[in-house]
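Minutes, project check-in
Item: structure for the 344-residue chain
Input as provided by the requester:
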Amino acid sequence: MKKIKAILLSLVLMLSMAIYLPAACSSKPDNGGNQTQTGGGDNEGENNGDNKGENEGVQTPENPETPTPPENPELPENPNEVTLTAEYSVMSFNIRTDVDGGNKAWAYRGQYVIDHIKNYGADVVALQEVKRSQYVTIKAELSSKYQTVFYERDNASDPEGLAILFTYEFEVVEKSVFWLSETPETPSIGWDAQYHRICVNTLLRSCYGNYINVYNTHLEWAGTNARNNGLQLIVDRAKASLHPTVICGDFNADEHSNTYGVIKNDFNDTQKIAPETDSGFTAHDWGLFDPEWKNPIDFIFVSKDIGCSKFDILQDEISDGVYYSDHYAVTAKINYQYTLKYVK
């Protein structure tokens, strides 16, 4: 009986995958077949919102990393559909913008940061405090593993922005940027903020048929109203999503703040729901470890339909007390179920 079930299961998978899987899973793309997703425009990202949503195409590497298939499902009760479990690793990392000197300068630590991201190998990576010049290097160095979306927050000469990296298992369905302000569709500073603050949203579709909606942000550090209202704006938009959703970023506030209260009832903190979890500093200010920041201020929140098996704070140094950034990266191993339907 088990053998018969296994044969039937194989037939179900072959039928569903043959019909629904794009070329990214069934075969390696031709030269230039996939495009790196960016903020568009003449620059590496977008700095003013006038041209948002356009792509900048680049050639796909000859040998991109091959996606890992989802776990085998149980034999479905409905012969016209099959339920699968998607499992992904997510990283959120404030890489520290390029304003420091010495061994804190990007020229010194940039390659270490890139190797750190590559070696961990998350499926989705959300980066904060990314200047355009930093992004150019990151995109080039990691193009064999990741596609990218990048938006800039303002029109400075070397503007800071947010990047989302994702493996070649995915393609972009939708992507956008909005400002954390009273006028989110136009470049603007909101409430009592000192800087332009943005959120980047990317809806990804896996070549296995499932979706994941990713939000990446860096909330205001000084203005409480801007921080709270900005996060509320993100939560309201994310709640309207029809797909499993992840909200990543540097919140500049810990779990005891009013800011945390804005999101905790609608989305789950992966640090809290993971059976294997971690605690302590995520913002350490180059190893100074101010007691004010003894709890995480960098988070990965997920919608209620997503589980998390492990949360980790990558408390690593480059060497001899030199750090990758003034923040540690945080990571989560997430999972959720989805259904594929097929036709004969």
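Outcome recorded: Helices lie at 2-20, 23-26, 106-120, 132-141, 224-239, 258-263, 270-273.
No further action items on this chain.
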